[in-house]
Specification:
Number of helices: 23
Structural class: alpha/beta
Strand content: 15-25%
Helix content: 40-55%
Shape: elongated
Number of strands: 21
Strand order of the largest sheet: 13-14-16-17-18-19-20-21
Distance between the termini: 134 Å
Bound molecules: ligand C2E, magnesium ion
């Protein structure tokens, strides 16, 4: 072809000819390219159709809705299935993302928006969000939305697109399982876990809303253990079920009634209109239980003690409300059962202070904050120190030195008393061993250690005491254990055996605070007691004829039984003299000395030793003048 054109070239000139040739060539090339492109397009279209069909089929099979959000034009298209899932087949939808986002449950909206923003910003590679959407019929549907962003380079994406799956059934199943795990199998009421969760949520809500109040009722059946033991556990279970049913009838639809376990129930009253709502429910519950409950053939009367606590924005947490209601319930039990008590917020501060002290006390031992102070017990005849009473003190880091009276009851309640008692015993015996070595005497110095009733109930007490004596290398006769009368009120054989065992070791037992409790002399002979301590109450009222009479009788009887009498709390010389004249052979009180730290107690011993060097002639005819030997000014 190119050869045929040559003569023409000679006519029109070479340049024109060449341009013609080039034009023809490029046209041919373009045609070729077009054909190729067309083929490619056809193939691509085919592939796309195939792929679309595949995806559409997959989406159809997956039952997913599809959406495509063009961010450049801010246009969002929804597939028919997407619309169908929300009952919007016949609703005209605008091509806007609003149609989706405006249907999101208010509680889920913020989270979803944050997820979408993260996808757009590129901080998250994909979107996967479970949220609720409002169906056209007004109900909520749980959906799972998955999406990817199409972006060019690092720029803002051009579009995001994804699928939407209906997961309502799965959510329902999950909820069902959760509910099953949250219910008490016996009564069908919600269980403790569920209750605590609801309570936590209610407290969080009320903390944000100063105008709202919630109430917690804590109900504990009275003497249920006895009833249960008496009936047998199967009947007991049936009884609990009928009780639950009766209680259920007392609460309103929004209230949460739970069985917390055993015979404990609780009610959460969310959004209280009036405090009397809570007390009214408590009354209703007590009335509901009032009628006899039929249990097989027998009828059982059940009562309950209820504690009520209210909470508002100032609540620290749900534990606080639980504790308050629990405390109120215990108060209801303590004041006669079958009643309700409302927790008094005023006492919350005192209660908290008490709990702090209890916590501190638990750690006081480990931190070495406990001390032992010693108060002399003197011979009424010659005024010499025959023993010291060991009295616990607590060097509290903030409150200073605390007397035993201010923390021993707390130690008894909280159970710390056992550890504390063991420590005091060891400390006192080690101290006594040193004093006995440094101040030897024909009549070796003794030490008295107080025991709480709770300690005496421990069967290991005698072996602990024996071990402590061995460790300190102190003779048992040098140790007196002070016990109180309250121990004899309910003495079981075990207590008696413990006391006999202690006496068997050779340790002396002193009856402390005599006259304040049981106040009967008749039982004295049954116990291996070697001294009676007459309580300060009688000593301080010696002027009253009947008090003096009581002291006289105690002294007489003790003498007859071969016991010593120690008068406690002698505060004046005059009292000391009178007590000696009545026949008390030992005295203890501020008139002789106050309880003092070990160093000062030792100074008293040193002074006494020096004095006996100078005059061994304290005649028994001399009037008792304990203060001339040991003056109160030496005291703490
Ligand atoms: P208690 O055994 O009757 O001890 C006598 C209490 O009276 C002591 O108080 C003492 O300081 C105080 N006292 C002594 N003389 C006089 C006086 O002339 N006038 C007045 N007004 N008071 C006097 P404290 O040390 O506060 O002890 C109180 C109670 O705590 C003791 O009563 C005792 O029952 C108990 N206690 C002390 N230490 C211990 C211990 O280590 N273990 C146990 N379980 N209880 C202890
Ligand atoms: Mg005592
Ligand atoms: Mg006493």
């Amino acid at each position: 072809m190119w050869a045929a054109l040559l003569p023409l070239a000679a006519v029109v000139g070479a340049p024109l000819l060449w341009s013609l040739v080039r034009q023809r060539r490029s046209r041919a090339r373009r045609a070729l390219e077009m054909t190729r492109l067309d083929n490619k397009l056809q193939r691509a279209r085919h592939a796309l159709r195939q792929s679309e069909e595949r995806y559409a089929l997959a989406a159809l099979a997956a039952n997913d809705g599809l959406w495509d959000w063009d961010l450049v034009r801010d246009r969002c298209d929804f597939s028919p299935r997407w619309r169908g899932m929300l009952g919007l087949e016949h609703t005209a939808l605008l091509p806007l993302a609003r149609e989706w986002l405006d249907r999101v449950h208010p509680d889920d909206a913020t989270r979803l928006r944050a997820d979408i923003e993260a996808l757009i910003a590129g901080t998250s590679p994909r979107l996967e969000s479970e949220h609720r959407l409002r169906h056209a019929d007004g109900t909520w549907r749980w959906v799972l939305v998955r999406a990817l962003a199409l972006r060019e380079g690092d720029a803002r994406p051009l579009r995001i697109a994804g699928s939407m799956t209906d997961i309502s059934a799965r959510k329902r199943a999950e909820e069902e399982l959760r509910r099953a795990a949250m219910h008490d199998a016996l009564t069908g009421l919600v269980n403790r876990a569920y209750f605590l969760e609801s309570l936590e949520r209610a407290v969080a809500r009320v903390q944000r809303r100063p105008d709202k109040t919630i109430a917690l009722l804590f109900l504990d059946l009275d003497r249920f253990k006895q009833i249960n033991d008496g009936l047998g556990h199967l009947a007991g279970d049936r009884l609990l079920t009928s009780i639950a049913r009766r209680l259920q009838g007392c609460v309103r639809p929004g209230d949460v009634l739970a069985r917390l376990g055993g015979d404990e129930f609780a009610v959460l009253l969310d959004d209280l209109k009036d405090p009397t709502d809570a007390t009214r429910i408590a009354e209703r519950m007590q009335e509901a239980l009032h009628g006899p409950l039929r249990n097989d053939e027998s009828e059982v009367i059940v009562t309950a003690s209820i504690g009520i606590a209210f909470g508002g924005a100032d609540l620290e947490g749900h534990e606080e409300l639980l504790r308050d209601a629990d405390l109120a319930m215990y108060r209801a039990k303590a004041s006669g059962k079958a009643r309700f008590e409302v927790f008094d917020t005023g006492s919350r501060a005192t209660e908290r202070a008490r709990m702090e002290l209890e916590n501190d006390l638990r750690r006081a031992l480990e931190r070495g904050e406990l001390r032992v102070h010693y108060q002399p017990i003197v011979d009424a005849g010659d005024g010499r120190i025959v023993a010291f009473e060991a009295l616990a003190r607590w060097a509290h880091p903030q409150r200073g030195l605390l007397n035993a009276a201010s923390f021993i009851p707390l130690a008894e309640e909280s159970g710390t008393i056992s550890a504390l008692g063991r420590w005091v015993l060891r400390e006192a015996l080690a101290q006594l061993a040193q004093w006995q070595r440094d101040y030897p005497s024909e009549r070796p110095l003794g030490v008295s250690v107080n025991l709480s009733p709770r300690e005496v109930l421990q069967p290991r007490l005698p072996s602990n005491v024996a071990e402590a004596l061995r460790e300190a290398n102190v003779a048992p006769e040098s140790l007196a254990l002070e016990i109180t009368e309250s121990l004899f009120i309910d003495t079981g054989d075990a207590t008696l055996a413990t006391l006999r065992e202690l006496a068997g070791l050779g340790v002396k037992l002193h009856l402390d605070d005599f006259g304040t409790g049981y106040s009967s002399l008749s039982y004295l002979h049954r116990f291996p007691i070697s001294a009676v301590k007459i309580d300060r109450y009688f000593v301080s009222r010696l002027d009253a004829a009947e008090c003096e009479e009581i002291v006289r009788s105690v002294v007489e009887l003790s003498k007859r039984l071969g016991m010593d009498t120690i008068a406690e709390g002698a505060e004046s010389d005059e009292q000391g003299v009178r007590l000696r004249d009545i026949g008390c052979n030992l005295l203890q009180g501020y008139a002789c000395a106050r309880p003092v730290p070990p160093r000062e107690a030792e100074a008293l011993l040193a002074r006494q030793a020096g004095m006996s060097e100078r005059s061994r002639s304290i005649s028994s005819a001399r009037v008792f003048t304990p203060h001339s030997d040991i003056h109160p000014s030496l005291g703490a």
